[in-house]
């Protein structure tokens, strides 16, 4: 029997809360994969625990990597990762995780036997063609153009041309394993612009921090020399994209939300929230003040690893962090924004825009049709179901102000749709989110954290 819909809590007063977020999905899954490919045992601290991260852990174990928890809590875990010979004969469940279905196949191609992949029903619809074709031209054999498929190798590497306009993960996936291919890999993108550039920068930075030579000097070309990937001890930053719905609550309720440990410098696209929320009427500041314990919201775990007791930070981990403080007035201004580089923020920005007093236009995100669901269609359908006025365009959404009413907000198994419903529910009584449990993809404790933010625990 399906779980009952989640009645999204309405905020009756301005929210005042400090919200501590677990680790970034994108950094966690890159760090684990690189550790599995490294030249010796390494450590990944404050790794996220979530469905996508669990799927990555299971995939790496199936391929012969040993992952042992050194310290764990409900929301995060410090992993000791010991690489092993890459084992064939494995079956990998990618779930609905882009980082598993695009990052693991290049590693699996190096296994000593065939490796099969499958995922959730919708995962079979997510674009895979360009990365599978690229792996073929580098020497792998693959029996399909999407999930499910079986891959065998080994690929020797070399030069490949692909169209990565559908997903930056095609580039990141090849880059992460490229140094382990005999000839390395040169990737040349041909086609409309590649989205999510910060995620590619994240990949390049993490590779360089592991001693891999990456030349990205020529636009849309990435060259990775063959060589070892150094084992590291790194600490994962908090997930700034998952900060989005919580920070949205400050705008929607005219309150203040503080996120501790916001990195001074990061490749996470969530950092763009500072500018986006300012444009929508928030005041955004950084402060080094410690969180007030009584107001603090963190995933329910008494043993949580706090950034303060972690080991020395790596390049990717924050060398300097501060609190990010977002304050709203309750009045929201619409926005005209190209979210091409930060597409995963779109559902939250659209939810805030649906509550604004002026129209919004979101552009540059046609690739969102290949995400967990067609996010443009899903956002338009669900906001309009609540009485909204949202129009899909070729590459985005037009969102015009209109009073909303309660009703069911479908999540389409998309964590960011579910949290978008929660944001709207803050201001609109009677919103019920279908399948709120899908937030487990990247933030299993979303419901508890949301309730705690609203002061109802
Ligand atoms: O590499 C990554 O970790 C990600 C890249 C982006 O994918 P797309 O380029 O497909 O949007 C982003 O949307 C996704 O959530 C995570
Ligand atoms: C697009 C997303 O995820 P994935 O890594 O599965 O592509 C996302 O988290 O918004």
UniProtKB/TrEMBL annotation:
Source organism superkingdom: Bacteria
Signal peptide: none
Gene3D superfamilies linked to this entry: Enolpyruvate transferase domain
Pfam families linked: EPSP_synthase
Keywords: Amino-acid biosynthesis, Aromatic amino acid biosynthesis, Cytoplasm, Transferase
Subcellular location: Cytoplasm
Enzyme class: transferase
EC number: 2.5.1.19
Keyword Ion transport attributed: no
Binding-site residues, phosphoenolpyruvate: 25, 98, 126, 169, 375, 416, 441
Enzymatic reactions: 3-phosphoshikimate + phosphoenolpyruvate = 5-O-(1-carboxyvinyl)-3-phosphoshikimate + phosphate
Amino-acid biosynthesis keyword on record: yes
Residues holding 3-phosphoshikimate: 25-26, 30, 167-169, 196, 344, 371
Compositionally biased spans, kind Polar residues: 287-299
Residue positions of the active site: 344 (proton acceptor)
Renumbered residue ranges of the record's region Disordered: 287-312
UniProt domain Enolpyruvate transferase: residue ranges: 11-449
Pathway connected to this protein: Metabolic intermediate biosynthesis; chorismate biosynthesis; chorismate from D-erythrose 4-phosphate and phosphoenolpyruvate: step 6/7
InterPro entries linked to this entry: Enolpyruvate_Tfrase_dom, Enolpyruvate_Tfrase_sf, EPSP_synthase, EPSP_synthase_CS, RNA3'P_cycl/enolpyr_Trfase_a/b
Function: Catalyzes the transfer of the enolpyruvyl moiety of phosphoenolpyruvate (PEP) to the 5-hydroxyl of shikimate-3-phosphate (S3P) to produce enolpyruvyl shikimate-3-phosphate and inorganic phosphate.
NCBIfam families per UniProt: aroA (TIGR01356)
Family: Belongs to the EPSP synthase family.
Oligomeric form and interacting partners: Monomer.
PANTHER family xrefs: AROM/DEHYDROQUINATE SYNTHASE, PENTAFUNCTIONAL AROM POLYPEPTIDE
Record-given protein name: 3-phosphoshikimate 1-carboxyvinyltransferase
Organism: Nonomuraea antimicrobica
Name of the coding gene: aroA
